[in-house]
Amino acid sequence: MPSWLALYYERPVEITRGEGRYVWDAEGRRYLDFFGGILTTMTEHALPAVAEAVAAQAGRVLHTSTLYLNRPMVELAERIAELSGIPDARVFFTSSGTEANDTALLLATSFRRSNQILAMRNSYHGRSFSSVAITGNTSWSPTTLSPLQTLYVHGSVRTRGPFAGLSDAEFTDRCVADLRDVLDQAGGQVAALIAEPVQGVGGFTSGPDGLFAAFREVLAERGILWISDEVQTGWGRTGDHFWGWQAHAASGPPDLLTFAKGLGNGMSIGGVVGRAEVVDCLAANSISTFGGSPVTMVAGLANLRHLLEHDLPGNARRVGGPLIERLRAFGSDVDFVREVRGRGLMIGIELVVPGTDRPWPEAASLVLEAAREEGLLIGKGGGPGGGVLRIAPPLSLTEEEAAEGAGMLEKALLRARSALGAG
């Protein structure tokens, strides 16, 4: 394995089994999972409906490719098109979120006949050559070489940067002015803006509701497409909305929406849903060998059905709100906790060097280790260095489990504070 393939923890954990919101390691120790395989185990571990659907399909045929008719793929595409909010939508399946964003970039640049892309600062869109080229987070940008000309704009980090002290309305106005200025200086024909409604790897940051609606008005004046990267925010994780773009819906839905992660509940699914005019624009042949696999499609159908029938987005709102407030109350007494932010079951805790605004990745690593010792798995991310704790449990999390996890996280913060000598 390559040296850059990072593992969490000084003593890496081998996870061998999962059930509900818990996982077990090779030594038999149980952990409450507050990260879900990077927001991928969306409903619960070993969800019977998914396991049964996968087993039944595997007993029939595992793989055919998109060169042959595939009823589960068509059924899932129809369901996603309906849920997307995009009129006359088309769906193309991939194997990951990175590949989904690659496809969206291919469609947008082909449709607009331009390789110019607008992206947000602090963003993350995948690890491929093209998606790295539009990633505004230096921790995840291993090369400056690019097939695209990328122009970065303000807006997705509300409490940092030159506009941090403004009201939401003033913040939005300044970001729109910045967008206009960038476009006026860009020259040529910009293809699209790609943006995460809530930045995932960036530390669960977001601008004010309505920001991308205001952006969309500017984009529409110039025919520029809007791509909403919903790989982490999609399927109701934010609790308030099924899609992250719906917090910015005043100017209508995006032209393209990318999805992945939670839909498969651990199976490798990604894809793009978008306006037919844009999705159908390719003049050359294109297929997917593994996107739309019968096994992953039946998993997605079963998982999506379970999510909707049990109103798990509503559960994310009901359980996530009190969890955020409890963590905020506790964090206010810890001097290296700068901010607790998020919505639904997508929560970030930003850690800084006490008395400064400087990210403290060493503290985040210590809290990560301490939480593991308490029996809790969390993630980390943020800007350079990674000073943000990322909390994103399965959307079926119960109130009792949320309280249990909050208690373990509070103990982990206290243990790290003691080790760091902080207040």
Please sum up the structure shown.
With 423 residues, the protein is an alpha/beta fold.
Low-confidence stretches: none
- How many β-strand stretches? 15
Strand arrangement within the widest β-sheet reads: 4-10-9-8-7-5-6
CA-based shape: globular
Radius of gyration, taken over Cα atoms and rounded to an integer in Å: 21 Å
Strand content: 15-25%
**Could you give the order of the helices and strands?**
EEEHHHEHEHEHEHEEEHHHEEHEEEH
Give the structural class.
Answer: alpha/beta
Q: Could you walk me through the main structural features you see in this protein, from its secondary elements to its overall organization?
A:
The chain has 423 residues and is α/β, with parallel strands linked by helices. Helices cover 37% and strands 17% of the residues. It contains twelve helices and 15 strands. It has helices at 36-39, 48-58, 71-84, 97-112, 129-132, 168-186, 211-221, 276-279, 294-309, 312-331, 361-374, 399-420, and strands at residues 15-19, 22-25, 30-33, 89-94, 116-120, 149-153, 192-195, 225-229, 256-259, 270-275, 337-343, 346-351, 376-377, 379-381, 388-391. The protein has a seven-stranded mixed β-sheet with strand order 4-10-9-8-7-5-6, sandwiched between helices. The protein has a four-stranded mixed β-sheet with strand order 1-2-3-13. A four-stranded antiparallel β-sheet has the order 11-12-15-14, covered by helices on one side. Strand 1 (15-19) and strand 2 form a beta hairpin. Helix 3 (71-84) crosses helix 9, helix 6 runs parallel beside helix 7 and helix 10 (312-331) runs parallel beside helix 12. The longest helix is centred in the last third of the chain and has 22 residues, at 399-420.
